[in-house]
Automatic annotation (TrEMBL):
<protein>
    <submittedName>
        <fullName>EAL domain-containing protein</fullName>
    </submittedName>
</protein>
<feature type="domain" description="EAL">
    <location>
        <begin position="23"/>
        <end position="276"/>
    </location>
</feature>
């Protein structure tokens, strides 16, 4: 038993070492991602449930590395946040969206573009300020954008964060709380922050039809949202049953593989047409 214990320990160290080495490799690779043009944006449609119109597109960052392959954002975003690359990534996303804007409007008309914003971008707000300046200079209305932020940002909100949220609101940029339900806050609390949308986390949606607790929770969120003028977006909607139930509950918007996966801009419209 002693022997195998020692052996396990060696294995364990090796696993830790490999994880560490892999992470170091990713950090080094991430430094090259922008100059080597390895990043791209995919867009995922969000539908109004009452008429199934595509009213919003969520921009989702993709990193294709020539040797390491496609690295998911759930892996590289936390690394970017830890190693101060997230500001540069965020700036790249802003620039790419501005560049895509004309093509988006040609294909979808008046559609809102939802952008994931890391809390760290609020801690170093120069790039957010620069985005507002760019919109102004190019006469792009802020109403075309929605920033997806997390509850955590509001929980430890500093004076600067509050001021920036105000600036965004005045520029017409909508605010959505991402992954709602995984943190601590209540909708009533969110109301103070001029939040326009709340995205119900996909962990709630995936078990919605079987789990009565989650159903009650969703119903309450939708009811309270209506009282507070906050609209609910369900994320990760994968089945018709989930969509039907959400619609019955009065949920406003739906996003998920059932109706549309994220695609590069050139393929988004086509993927919708094929569905009909
Ligand atoms: P998120 O903001 O919660 O984005 C939704 C995620 O769910 C996306 O994963 C999307 O592809 C996926 N998804 C959409 N519909 C379904 C469905 O029906 N079923 C399932 N199982 N998944 C679905 P993705 O693209 O891998 O992004 C993961 C996370 O990475 C995002 O989660 C977001 O937190 C972060 N992220 C992505 N792009 C950016 C970015 O530009 N900036 C920042 N700061 N974070 C980003
Ligand atoms: Ca999001
Ligand atoms: Ca989300
Ligand atoms: Ca998420």
């Amino acid at each position: 038993a002693k022997k195998s214990g020692k052996h396990q320990c060696v294995l364990f160290n090796q696993v830790i070492y490999e994880e560490f080495a892999r992470k170091m490799q990713l950090i080094e690779a991430l430094k090259e991602a922008i100059p080597q043009q390895q990043l791209s944006l995919h867009y995922q449609p969000i539908f109004r449930l009452s008429n199934l119109h595509c009213e919003k597109l969520e921009a989702l960052l993709r990193w294709q590395h020539p040797q390491l392959g496609m690295i998911p954002p759930d892996v590289f975003i936390p690394i970017a946040e830890e190693h101060n690359f997230i500001i540069a990534l965020g700036e790249w996303v802003f620039a790419q969206i501005i560049q895509d804007l004309q093509q988006i409007q040609q294909q979808f008309g008046k559609v809102e573009i939802c952008i994931n914003i890391s809390s760290l971008q609020f801690a170093h707000p120069a790039s957010l300020e620069q985005f507002l300046v760019t919109l102004n200079a190019q006469h792009i209305p802020g109403e075309q954008f929605c920033f997806e932020i997390t509850e955590r940002l509001l929980l430890d909100s500093s004076v600067n964060t509050m001021a920036m949220l105000n600036n965004l609101h005045h520029a017409g940029i909508k605010l959505a709380i991402d992954d709602f339900g995984t943190g601590y806050s209540s909708l009533a609390y969110l109301h103070k922050f001029m939040i326009d949308y709340v995205k119900i986390d996909k962990s709630f949606i995936s078990s919605l039809t079987e789990n009565e607790k989650n159903q009650a929770l969703c119903k309450t969120m939708i009811y309270m949202g209506n009282q507070l003028n906050i609209k609910l977006i369900a994320e990760g909607v994968e089945t018709q049953d989930q969509e039907t139930l959400l619609k019955q509950m009065g949920c406003h918007y739906s996003q998920g593989y059932l109706r549309a996966k994220p695609h590069p801009l050139i393929a988004v419209k086509e993927s919708l047409i094929q569905q009909d």
